[in-house]
């Protein structure tokens, strides 16, 4: 928080101090009158109690005056919270794309947990999720409502950890009996790309593609064809592989897909994977997103001015108590 007009408050403080000094100067020598046996009066308990009460009231009176004056000065100085808005963050879309085929069931719960951590690290990006097996299902569309996203991801994670007895079960909806085959990787990637909206806007688009790339069936789109669609759509693919398929043919193919689209291939065996994915998306995508940062000033004078109003009321009450 900053004070926008701190200099005005400083000027008023100096002027107020000068005024107090001027009006509090002694105007002349006051005559004094001796009173006999005053010591007896001042030693009385009732007199001491009265003087103590008057001292406390006077100290409270001065304290309230100081608090009211300082609150008024802070309000006049215009306290404000300054926020720098980066349009780049508002123009980035990230689609979480999850393979839920049988060979991935042992990894999906952990991947969804990783997705939740991934979402925690994002700031301003719109997030969506598509799951696929023999067909694809949109778990939720692109949104910047991170609370809703986390709820969906947690429900899906619970569904995989309990084998569908609790949470959300995607195994049946992605494996209809009228469609043959499973783990149709190319079709899944194309479906994830198709779920990007606002095609008329110049937005940065990324897919976090979690799969073991174990094809079992005849897809409409081979992975190479799906990669061409991603390149034509200017969608970067960041592939994410479970640790059991590291350094084999399937992983090398995923790396080729990521490289061709301008993304990268990651594995779940590294503790720094989430940090690297977030850093990669936010750094590389920022370079390809137009927009300049701008500043928004949020005025916050309400609290000090309310304190000043209550303080002023307290001044009147204590002034009356002091005179009475």
Q: What features would you describe in this structure?
A:
The chain is an alpha/beta fold and 324 residues long. The protein folds into 2 domains: 50-79 and 300-324; 87-287, von Willebrand factor, type A domain (Rossmann fold), CATH 3.40.50. The protein contains 11 helices and 9 strands. The chain has helices at residues 6-23, 38-42, 45-76, 87-90, 105-121, 146-161, 185-194, 223-232, 249-261, 273-287, 302-323; strands at residues 2-3, 79-85, 92-99, 126-132, 136-143, 204-210, 235-241, 265-267, 294-299. A hairpin with a 3-residue loop joins strand 4 (126-132) and strand 5. The mean pLDDT is 79.
Mean pLDDT: 79
**Fourth-tier CATH superfamily name of the largest domain:** von Willebrand factor, type A domain
In angstroms, what is the radius of gyration? 35 Å
Tell me the number of strands: 9
Helix content: 40-55%
N- to C-terminal distance: 42 Å
The count of domains is: 2
Our count of helices gives 11
- Unreliable stretches, pLDDT < 50, 5 or more residues? none
Shape: elongated
Element order: H for helix, E for strand? EHHHEHEHEEHHEHEHEHEH
CATH architecture of the largest domain: 3-Layer(aba) Sandwich
Strand order of the largest sheet: 5-4-3-6-7-8
State the major sheet. Answer: 6 strands, mixed
- Class by helix and strand content? alpha/beta
Question: What share of residues are in beta strands?
Answer: 15-25%
CATH topology of the largest domain: Rossmann fold
Identify the CATH class of the largest domain.
Answer: Alpha Beta
Short characterization:
The chain has 324 residues and is of the alpha/beta class.
């Amino acid at each position: 928080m900053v004070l926008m007009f701190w200099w005005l408050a400083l000027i008023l403080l100096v002027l107020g101090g000068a005024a107090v000094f001027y009006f509090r100067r002694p105007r002349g020598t006051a005559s004094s009158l001796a009173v006999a046996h005053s010591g007896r009066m001042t030693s009385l308990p009732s007199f001491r109690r009265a003087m103590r009460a008057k001292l406390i009231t006077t100290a409270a009176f001065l304290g309230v005056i100081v608090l009211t004056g300082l609150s008024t000065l802070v309000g006049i100085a215009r306290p404000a919270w300054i926020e720098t808005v980066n349009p780049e963050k508002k123009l980035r879309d990230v689609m979480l794309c999850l393979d839920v085929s049988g060979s991935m069931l042992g990894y999906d719960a952990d991947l969804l947990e990783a997705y939740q951590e991934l979402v925690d690290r994002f700031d301003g990006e719109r997030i969506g999720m598509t799951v696929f097996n023999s067909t694809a299902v949109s778990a939720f569309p692109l949104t910047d409502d991170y609370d809703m996203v986390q709820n969906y991801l947690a429900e899906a994670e619970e569904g995989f950890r309990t084998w569908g007895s609790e949470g959300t079960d995607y195994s049946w909806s992605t494996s209809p009996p009228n469609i043959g085959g499973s783990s149709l990787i190319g079709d899944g990637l194309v479906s994830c790309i198709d779920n990007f909206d606002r095609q008329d806007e110049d937005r940065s688009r990324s897919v976090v593609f979690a799969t073991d790339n174990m094809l079992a069936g005849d897809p409409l789109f081979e992975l190479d064809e799906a990669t061409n669609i991603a390149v034509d759509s200017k969608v970067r693919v960041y592939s994410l592989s479970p640790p059991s398929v590291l350094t084999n043919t399937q992983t090398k193919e995923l790396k080729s897909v990521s490289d061709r689209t301008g993304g990268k291939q990651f594995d779940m065996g590294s503790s720094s994977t989430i940090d690297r994915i977030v850093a990669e998306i936010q750094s590389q995508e920022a370079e390809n997103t137009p927009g300049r940062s701008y500043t928004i000033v949020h005025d916050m004078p309400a609290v000090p001015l309310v304190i000043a109003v209550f303080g002023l009321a307290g001044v009147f009450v204590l002034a009356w108590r002091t005179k009475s």
